[in-house]
């Protein structure tokens, strides 16, 4: 079985890209390979943090450990990006909060549906019963559903405020509709945050995914932001993780469910480097819910507000972006927060700091409180 790993350069292998998208992606990959700092290509992915607020209170979330002044992404920022939407492959709605609770979530999906971009969002699953029609009306391509246990007791203890049974029921309704109409969308996967108290349930998550009719189970490691959760991380637990991963792979082979796993501690391809080679500054353009551009969701440093530049190419090739590209993979110039990267795709899981961020600055300080930028 071909075990999937987190992507550091590539995106999901989409079919049906336009010639414009294909040319842009080829040029972008070539510029990455050449180490270009000023890019002629557009990003292949836009990542929009629709909100940093959430309707759950998960035990592992860093919300209680940082200054989370709630914000909703101003839809006018998206209008500014419309000239780019014919070039990028994918728009991902993902960040510190639950994107589907944005007051304009439906409007945002419908706007994106006017363009050839692939639509991808990550959700805690609590609102699926409200947005089921939207998934099909606007052909959402990928939906990742966060679930942290294969049974109600485990998941609902970790994801406080969630209802395992309601989420599973909603997913069954969605997959039944896919089968009825022979739709191949949305591609749905579970995303499970692995910790000491739920690691053993990862194989059962594969069984659950197969029973519902999902395509994939993805596992990511817990990063602890406070001392109370330090005992839950899987640092120095490679043996147990390896055994569970082996059984998970076996279940995936039996059921046909794709399995995406992080590297076992000591086996990460990053070796002794601070993190895996990072290409988010070339591939992605990330805008936080407060309108500030950051390299990725897991980096606390803001580079500039999206309103600073009137033209996208000015922002894309700004001194801030070029500065990040020139330093992110250079151990001598790299930002301190990048040296302790915990971003699931790029972190070096051979390093303790990827699992433990206690006492570190791991999230940005957001401007203001709940804003009025909802129209």
What does this structure look like?
- It is a single chain.
- With 375 residues, this protein is of the alpha/beta class.
- The protein has a ten-stranded mixed β-sheet.
Total of helices: 13
Integer-rounded radius of gyration: 20 Å
Terminal CA distance = 47 Å
Q: Give the number of DSSP strands.
A: 10
The largest beta-sheet arranges its strands as 7-6-5-4-3-2-1-8-9-10
Percent helix, as a range, is: 25-40%
Indicate the low-confidence ranges by residue numbers.
Answer: none
* Shape designation: globular
By secondary-structure content and strand pairing, the structural class works out as alpha/beta
Strand content: 5-15%
| Largest sheet composition | 10 strands, mixed
Mean of residue pLDDT values: 95
**What sequence of helices (H) and strands (E) makes up the elements?**
HEHEHEHEHHEHEHEHEEEHHHH
Provide a brief overview of the structure.
This protein has 375 residues and is of the alpha/beta class. The chain contains 13 helices and 10 strands.
Topology:
Elements: H1 19-34, E1 45-48, H2 75-81, E2 90-93, H3 105-112, E3 118-123, H4 128-137, E4 142-146, H5 152-158, H6 164-181, E5 187-194, H7 202-212, E6 216-221, H8 238-255, E7 258-260, H9 280-283, E8 284-287, E9 292-294, E10 304-305, H10 312-316, H11 319-327, H12 336-339, H13 352-355
Helix pairs in contact: 7-8
């Amino acid at each position: 079985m071909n075990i999937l790993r987190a992507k550091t350069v590539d995106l999901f292998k989409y079919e049906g890209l336009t010639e414009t998208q294909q040319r842009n992606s080829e040029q972008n990959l070539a510029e990455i390979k050449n180490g270009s700092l000023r890019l002629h290509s557009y990003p292949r992915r836009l990542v929009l943090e629709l909100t940093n607020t959430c309707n759950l209170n998960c035990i592992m979330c860093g919300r209680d450990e940082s200054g989370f002044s709630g914000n909703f992404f101003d839809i006018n920022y998206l209008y500014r990006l419309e000239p780019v939407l014919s070039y990028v492959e994918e728009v991902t709605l993902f960040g510190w909060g639950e994107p589907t609770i944005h007051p304009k979530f439906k409007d945002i999906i419908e706007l994106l549906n006017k363009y050839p971009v692939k639509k991808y969002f990550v959700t805690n699953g609590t609102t699926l019963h409200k947005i089921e029609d939207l998934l099909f009306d606007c052909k959402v391509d990928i939906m990742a559903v966060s679930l942290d246990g294969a049974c109600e007791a485990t998941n609902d203890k970790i994801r406080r405020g969630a209802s395992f049974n309601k989420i599973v029921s909603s997913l069954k309704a969605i997959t039944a509709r896919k089968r009825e109409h022979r739709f191949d969308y949305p591609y749905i996967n579970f995303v499970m945050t692995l910790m000491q108290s739920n690691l053993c349930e990862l194989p059962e998550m594969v069984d659950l995914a197969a029973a519902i009719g999902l395509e994939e189970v993805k596992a990511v490691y817990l990063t602890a932001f406070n001392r109370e959760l330090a005992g839950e991380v899987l640092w120095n637990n490679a043996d147990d993780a390896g055994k569970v991963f082996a059984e998970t792979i076996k279940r995936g082979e039996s059921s046909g469910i794709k399995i995406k796993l992080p590297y076992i501690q000591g086996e990460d391809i990053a070796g002794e480097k601070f993190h895996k080679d990072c290409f988010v500054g070339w591939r992605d353009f990330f805008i936080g819910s407060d309108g500030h551009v950051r390299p990725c969701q897991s980096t606390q440093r803001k580079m500039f507000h999206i309103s600073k530049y009137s033209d996208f190419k000015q922002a894309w090739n700004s001194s801030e972006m070029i500065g990040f590209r020139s330093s992110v993979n250079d151990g001598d110039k790299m930002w301190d927060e990048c040296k302790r990267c915990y971003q699931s795709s790029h972190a070096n899981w051979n390093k303790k700091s990827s699992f433990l961020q206690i006492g570190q600055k791991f999230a940005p300080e957001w401007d203001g409180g709940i804003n009025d930028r909802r129209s």
